[in-house]
């Protein structure tokens, strides 16, 4: 799994292409009848705003990590494993990256509540305007996506908080219990 994460982190275009293809497959599953090409094209065109946001965030994170994609991938990998950098420059880059990500997630609870309300509203409107298959599909998508968003968001937030706490420590070495820490935090 680590190789997949590194590959997707290194090649942002692959991550975006897979996202568009997965979304297109879901649309074709829920609403059969349109050609695959037209669905992929419409999905890609409607995803442009999200792609621009991802690219802007990536540019800021590269700058925080020292300017390169390789540095960002390395820091992101260390962050997932809970490894605190020893090198002073890497520590400073990790500190900047963690601060940036924590700042960006400061309204995550409100955003998740809004996302849940939006998904539930779309599911309810689908139940009123579409067939049973689409309603069941949107209901399943709502439950699975929201559960994944909350679980993954909490895991990432705990990892960021644990890394911030470790970086604010003595500044010389990582405590041994942080290496490979999958939960991301201990109090």
UniProtKB/TrEMBL annotation:
<feature type="transmembrane region" description="Helical">
    <location>
        <begin position="109"/>
        <end position="130"/>
    </location>
</feature>
<feature type="transmembrane region" description="Helical">
    <location>
        <begin position="136"/>
        <end position="155"/>
    </location>
</feature>
<keyword id="KW-1133">Transmembrane helix</keyword>
<keyword id="KW-0472">Membrane</keyword>
<protein>
    <submittedName>
        <fullName>Peptidoglycan/LPS O-acetylase OafA/YrhL</fullName>
    </submittedName>
</protein>
<feature type="transmembrane region" description="Helical">
    <location>
        <begin position="37"/>
        <end position="57"/>
    </location>
</feature>
<keyword id="KW-0812">Transmembrane</keyword>
<feature type="transmembrane region" description="Helical">
    <location>
        <begin position="12"/>
        <end position="31"/>
    </location>
</feature>
């Amino acid at each position: 799994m680590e190789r997949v994460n590194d590959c997707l982190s290194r090649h942002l275009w692959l991550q975006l292409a897979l996202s568009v293809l997965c979304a297109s497959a879901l649309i074709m599953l829920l609403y059969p009848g349109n050609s695959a090409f037209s669905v992929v094209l419409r999905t890609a065109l409607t995803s442009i705003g999200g792609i621009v946001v991802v690219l802007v965030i990536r540019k800021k994170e590269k700058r925080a990590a020292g300017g390169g994609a390789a540095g960002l991938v390395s820091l992101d990998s260390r962050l997932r494993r809970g490894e605190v950098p020893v090198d002073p420059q890497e520590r400073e880059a990790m500190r900047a990256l963690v601060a940036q990500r924590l700042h960006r997630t400061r309204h995550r609870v409100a955003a998740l509540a809004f996302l849940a309300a939006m998904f539930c509203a779309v599911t309810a409107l689908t139940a009123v305007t579409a067939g049973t298959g689409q309603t069941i599909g949107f209901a399943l998508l709502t439950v699975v996506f929201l559960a994944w968003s909350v679980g993954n968001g909490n895991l990432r937030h705990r990892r960021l908080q644990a890394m911030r706490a470790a970086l604010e420590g003595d500044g010389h070495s990582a405590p041994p219990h942080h290496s490979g820490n999958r939960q991301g935090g201990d109090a």
